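Duplicate of #3305? Posting structure anyway:
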């Protein structure tokens, strides 16, 4: 009889745990999703304002102002791209240094193993 109570109790606890696990993300994700939606709405608003500002400035300042703004945006993009490339190059250099360090570490481990072998298995002197 105890065995059945334990089995039923285990099943009820498992169902209770499953219900709490599935309920927690939905109740806690709603505020986060609201914030994310607000941020996306603000980003869309900013992007639409930037585009409309460029168009309005082009109308008021002429085609030369539009070209200057486009060139400025392109230069900023290129500067960001150069920064990303520099970060990638730094990462590659870091990986190369890490590989060299691991190679040295493995060589030192092999030398240590050889040293331990030579301590426990000394070579016998060959008499002439």
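Output from current build:
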């Amino acid at each position: 009889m105890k065995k059945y109570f334990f089995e039923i109790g285990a099943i009820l606890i498992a169902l209770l745990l499953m219900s709490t696990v599935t309920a927690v993300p939905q109740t806690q994700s709603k505020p986060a999703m609201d914030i994310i939606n607000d941020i996306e709405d603000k980003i869309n608003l900013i992007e639409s304002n930037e585009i409309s500002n460029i168009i309005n400035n082009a109308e008021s300042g002429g085609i030369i102002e539009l070209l200057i703004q486009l060139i400025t945006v392109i230069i900023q993009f290129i500067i960001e791209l150069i920064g990303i490339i520099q970060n990638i190059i730094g990462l590659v250099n870091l990986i190369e240094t890490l590989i060299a360090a691991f190679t040295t570490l493995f060589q030192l481990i092999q030398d240590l193993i050889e040293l331990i072998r030579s301590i426990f298995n000394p070579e016998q002197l060959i008499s002439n």
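Confirmed duplicate; merging threads. The first helix runs from residue 2 to 61. Helices lie at 2-61, 63-120.
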